[in-house]
């Protein structure tokens, strides 16, 4: 009885954090608007909302879900997975491109519903465990999503293996301390594809980088990430937000399966060039 009481006391602070989640009120309506799920290429599917990109990677041993959108999106993601003909409870691994509420909002609930293992870039583990409270830009001591305890910490270049699919995590910090991208290879009846799910390093704070003591290496991290992304090779690129990779120009609900619509190196380079200019302006570089 005493051991059970102590265990409950240890869980009580986490219960309080979960009960006091405060997602910002000014979130764009596109972040929660529904969007019809579809097959992007091979075993890579889109199951997110109109703008918050969530990806289902199917394998011979169960499935992988990357990102979950807002806290209200769990039911929508579950529905989308079902519409594609897959079992929601076959999700075995959960991943995220960044530890912000717009990508982790429903993660704790989905983890509970599926029993899947949560894997995260080690630099985002602490902020994920406190529900975003310690985030250098969006935290301000407020819990913006239900806290999640990771089952595995990932480092740059680590592989996530499930069945016949191997995903490489790329550490791309700046937007958060543990922002990351994912690379994988897939194929269909016609050909193979290399797929990049890129975490584009948009600048999330209006403060000068020098005025962020909680993240002293932020400038260095952004510079590293921009350079790393510019040197990647791929066939298809996707991102954390549909608007970042022009989803709605490349695909309309009801369109036929067409991986080639996402062959877009030019668009990728344009986004990175825009982010580089934003970074240069922020750091006073001419």
From TrEMBL:
It comes from the Bacteria. Residues 51-241 form the Metallo-beta-lactamase domain. Keywords: Signal. Residues 1-18 form the signal peptide. NCBIfam families: bla_class_B_core, bla_subclass_B3, blaPEDO-1_fam. This is Subclass B3 metallo-beta-lactamase BJP-1. It comes from Pedobacter jeongneungensis. The lineage of its organism: Bacteria, Pseudomonadati, Bacteroidota, Sphingobacteriia, Sphingobacteriales. The gene is blaBJP.
């Amino acid at each position: 009885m005493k051991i059970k009481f102590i265990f409950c006391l240890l869980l009580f602070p986490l219960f309080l954090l979960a009960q006091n989640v405060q997602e910002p009120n000014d979130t764009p309506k596109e972040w929660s608007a529904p969007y019809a799920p579809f097959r992007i290429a091979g075993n890579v599917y889109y199951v997110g909302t109109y703008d918050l990109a969530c990806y289902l990677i199917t394998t011979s041993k169960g499935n992988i879900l990357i990102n979950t959108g807002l806290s209200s999106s769990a039911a929508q993601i579950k529905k989308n997975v079902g519409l594609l003909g897959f079992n929601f409870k076959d999700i075995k691994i959960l991943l995220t491109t960044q530890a912000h509420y717009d990508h982790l909002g429903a993660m704790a609930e989905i983890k509970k519903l599926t029993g899947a293992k949560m894997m995260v870039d080690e630099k985002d583990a602490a902020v994920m465990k406190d529900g975003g409270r310690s985030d250098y830009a969006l935290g301000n001591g407020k819990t913006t999503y239900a806290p999640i305890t990771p089952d595995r910490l990932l480092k740059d270049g680590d592989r996530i293996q499930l069945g016949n699919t191997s995903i490489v995590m790329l550490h791309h910090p700046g937007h958060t301390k543990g922002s990351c991208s994912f690379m994988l290879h897939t194929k269909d009846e016609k050909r193979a594809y290399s797929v990049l799910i890129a975490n584009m390093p948009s600048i999330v704070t209006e403060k000068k980088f020098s005025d962020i003591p909680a993240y002293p290496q932020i400038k260095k991290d952004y510079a590293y990430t921009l350079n790393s992304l510019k040197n990647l090779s791929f066939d298809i690129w996707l991102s954390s937000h549909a608007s970042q990779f022009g989803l709605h120009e490349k695909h309309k609900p009801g369109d036929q399966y067409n991986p080639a619509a996402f062959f877009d190196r030019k668009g990728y380079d344009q986004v990175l060039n825009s982010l580089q200019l934003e970074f240069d302006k922020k750091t006073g570089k001419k």
